[in-house]
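# step 3/5: fold
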Amino acid sequence: MMNSKSKILERLGSQTKSAKRPLPEWESSTFDGDLEAHFTTAIQANKGQVMELADFEIWMTKQVFQTILCLSKHFQEEKSIALPSDAHDLAHLNLAILDGQFGTAENGAIWLEDDNLQLRAIPFITEHLVVFLSRKNLVSDMHAAYAKIQESKAGFGLFLAGPSKTADIEQSLVIGAHGSKSLLVVWHD
């Protein structure tokens, strides 16, 4: 016995079946010039920053010394420092530093794989995110990026293209609403 829902779905299904159509042909876009320059422009357009490794080392040295001074009392009481197994324990994470597998010049998207994340929540829960990226690991567009992902053995990965942004409320741009407030990409060779 067929109920009314099944009858409606059957009629819709018989009317919506269409012939299979081939996917459109697509030619890979290539950038005239430097992938690094295109990537940097895209990251900056996404409200992120790009820095050379040497400049980052100077900046980070200052940050580390300030942090050590602030946390020295806390670390004296701790016996070990380890990444927690529960993402809830990272609720107050201020800075995360990750390795990016590759970047896409077309839109500034950086591919992050599960092996380098430890906890999948890290890029979203931290206040500030630093991603190290090799210049050698740039591709021109998302088609090349997806081809590169096919070569990977990762079980999970994500594209990240800047700090979190939303303009849903009264069309006012809010940075850091759903993730990090800043993204800094550090170039290395």
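# step 4/5: annotate
The mean pLDDT is 79.
# step 5/5: archive (pending)
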